[in-house]
Amino acid sequence: MKKSKHIISGIFLVFIFVFAVLLAALPKKDYSENEKRVLSVFPSFSVEALFDGTWFKDIETFVSDQFPFRDAFVGINSYFNLITGRNGVSGVYKCDDGYLIADPDEIDFNRTQRNGEIISEFVKTSGLPATLIVVPTPGYIMEDVLPANHKEYHDDEIFEYAGNVDGVQLLDLREVFMENKENAQIYFKTDHHLTTEGSYLMYKQFCEHKGLTPVTEFAKTEVLEDFYGTNYSKSGLWLEKPDTVEIRHSANGYEYEVTVDDISEKKTYDSLYFYEHDENMDKYPVFLNGNHALVTIKNKSVTNGQKLLVVKDSYSHCFATFLCENYEEIYLVDLRYFRLSTTELIEANGITELLFLYGAENYANMSDISWLR
């Protein structure tokens, strides 16, 4: 018995020693491509941090982030949770047909009510026609692929609040998404966003809602392979198959001027697509270069005087690459980063119409909408 205990203790000590040597010797990563986040670096020492305990906490975080073969251990742990009946413990469900779907957020409906009131107040002050699009969660639309034991999604309650925003017309996508989900892949399987097909379906519904003529002919479609989205990164289920990303080029051949404005820096491009992101696991930023404070799309081939302000999250990015066919100018504002006056933006650019576009849970829980004021 004593001999076996010594053997076990010896193995444990060897294990600790080997991994300590590897931790010291192996190069450190600044960023985890799988987890899509910045990793901790070795903390700077200070007497104050030593005595208040923060230095030791930072050391612990550093070791956790830089642990040798971290990705492999994360994956092993995720699949262990899965086979032991803890599907969704990471915040992501492994579902049928290859889908990875985030479990539902807790919703603060008092905030949801306030968000609607802020939007209503802003719209009335602007005097402009306004539409609200709330994109249903993948878990709500794709409930048939979820594991039997899952939490309930709150889309119906969220849409009830969204439908009562005074002065704003709600475009409800639930029915059309339910009708089309068997014939088209509306959501990515490893990500929370709509696919290009899903975004195009939303675009057609918006055109019908506004009396616009949607683009229906495409000169070519490009396909980007090996897209691993945010749900893949959260899940740690590294063996799941990737998505593909479609880029559809309209047959109209319109020319665009795209300005990406991060307030401190502004750059102008002649394309809606940023192909450098094809080199990354997360390829969704190929549409309009991802999240920025303000993105302006000017259609050089259209002079109809229609100028749209979109207050939005990232569900708008692929959608906007279709919508710019119908507007002379589109201004996409992300209130997570935009801290200037939205009212002044409207007045300075002669905006004629407003669109608020958010994923359902973002709409319900967001606090950044208060910057409209």
Concise structural overview:
Helix content is 37%, strand content 19%. It contains 13 helices and 14 strands.
Read across the widest sheet, the strand sequence of neighbours is 6-5-14-12-13-11-9-10
- Category by helix and strand content: alpha/beta
Task: Please give the count of helices.
Answer: 13
- Overall average residue pLDDT: 89
Unreliable stretches:
none
The largest β sheet comes out as: 8 strands, mixed
Assembly annotation: single chain
Count of DSSP strands: 14
Approximate strand percentage: 15-25%
Order of helices and strands: HEEHHHEEHEHHEHHEHEEEEEHEHEH
The span between the termini is: 72 Å
User: Fraction of residues in helices?
Assistant: 25-40%
Overall geometry: globular
Query: How large, in whole angstroms, is the Cα Rg?
Result: 24 Å
The number of domains is 2
Keyphrases for this structure?
37% helix; 373 residues; 2 domains; 8-stranded mixed β-sheet; alpha/beta; 14 strands
Task: Kindly describe this structure.
37% of the residues lie in helices and 19% in strands. The chain has 373 residues and is of the alpha/beta class. The chain folds into two domains: 2-68, no CATH class; 100-372, no CATH class. The protein has an eight-stranded mixed β-sheet with strand order 6-5-14-12-13-11-9-10, with helices on both faces.
How are the elements arranged and paired?
Layout: H1 2-25, E1 31-32, E2 37-38, H2 47-52, H3 54-66, H4 70-83, E3 92-94, E4 100-102, H5 109-126, E5 130-135, H6 138-141, H7 155-162, E6 169-172, H8 174-180, H9 196-210, E7 218-227, H10 230-235, E8 243-250, E9 256-261, E10 266-269, E11 294-299, E12 307-312, H11 316-323, E13 329-333, H12 342-349, E14 353-359, H13 360-365
Parallel strand pairs: 5-6, 5-14, 12-13, 12-14
Antiparallel strand pairs: 1-2, 3-4, 7-8, 9-10, 9-11, 11-13
